[in-house]
Amino acid sequence: MKVRKPAVAGSFYPKDPETLKSLVDKLLEKNTKEEPVGVISPHAGYVYSGKVAGKVLGLLGGKELKVLLIGPSHFVDFEGISFGDYQFFETPLGKVKVDWERIEEFLRLYRLPHALDNRPHMWEHSLEVQLPFLQRLSPNLTIVPIVYGRIDPETLAEFMEFFLEDDTHFVVSSDLSHYYPEEIARWIDEHCHRGIVEGDRKSLKTCEACGKVGILASLIIAQRRRLKPKLIAYDTSASAFGDKKAVVGYGGYAFFQ
């Protein structure tokens, strides 16, 4: 049994299971009256982006939640996507099963050179930080973990569509602008809001996000499926410690039928 061990427990979020459980439950705002097909969620340390993540991920739920989890590679430069070859992803809250049946079906159709490469996953936080929230929402969570490298949004959207044929939800992991004074950061991030929610392509050019390829892929899917994107929550890192000189923006968006 191959398990992907947590890389950022104790730094991005608490390592102690009970402390982590308590924090996640405090941050989660469960509201499943209108459950989205997918969401965009930030991936910073919980002290910075946890409130935004808790609000948008709290829209998901269910005992048998299946999630296509998508995030950018921050540390390894490669072409295409990687699932890794792990059977489970582990956090301090336990192990999460990887849906290898669906991945194997995908790999019979697509021959990708780095699909089973573990290197993009080893130190990557963009997927990992979403997991404790999803674990608290669903006791029988299963995931398809995708870290992407150099890939165009259209191809990524095509790959995502394969896994969304059933009742799987997608979670696209991305922060917004990085290290601008807060006033400028909010101005840049406002372009992300307009680009995502209103489909303003001109605004999207000004939007800065480390997971922009994943965001653009989700917008392609939203257009094809006639999903309605909504801004659920927004904040910057200034809210955590008050430093407004160089902030990071965090947006939570949901896509509804």
Offer a quick outline of the entry.
With 257 residues, the chain is an alpha/beta fold. Helices cover 37% and strands 23% of the residues.
Level of helix content? 25-40%
Beta-strand portion reads: 15-25%
Number of domains: 1
CATH architecture term: 3-Layer(aba) Sandwich
Q: How large, in whole angstroms, is the Cα Rg?
A: 17 Å
| Structural class label | alpha/beta
| Principal-axes shape call | globular
Unreliable spans are none
Biggest sheet layout: 11 strands, mixed
Question: Got a strand count?
Answer: 11
Query: What's the helix-strand series?
Result: EHEHEEEEHHHEHEEHHHEHE
CATH topology: Protocatechuate 4,5-dioxygenase, Chain B
Structure description:
Helix content is 37%, strand content 23%. The chain is an alpha/beta fold and 257 residues long. Strands 1, 2, 3, 4, 5, 6, 7, 8, 9, 10 and 11 form an 11-stranded mixed sheet that branches. Strand 5 (88-91) and strand 6 form a beta hairpin. Helix 6 (153-163) packs across helix 9. It is globular and about 45 Å long.
Write the layout of secondary structure elements.
Elements: E1 3-4, H1 17-27, E2 38-41, H2 46-57, E3 66-72, E4 81-82, E5 88-91, E6 94-98, H3 100-109, H4 119-122, H5 131-137, E7 142-148, H6 153-163, E8 169-173, E9 178-180, H7 182-197, H8 201-206, H9 212-225, E10 228-236, H10 238-241, E11 247-256
Parallel strand pairs: 1-5, 2-8, 3-7, 3-8, 6-7
Antiparallel strand pairs: 2-11, 4-7, 5-6, 9-11, 10-11
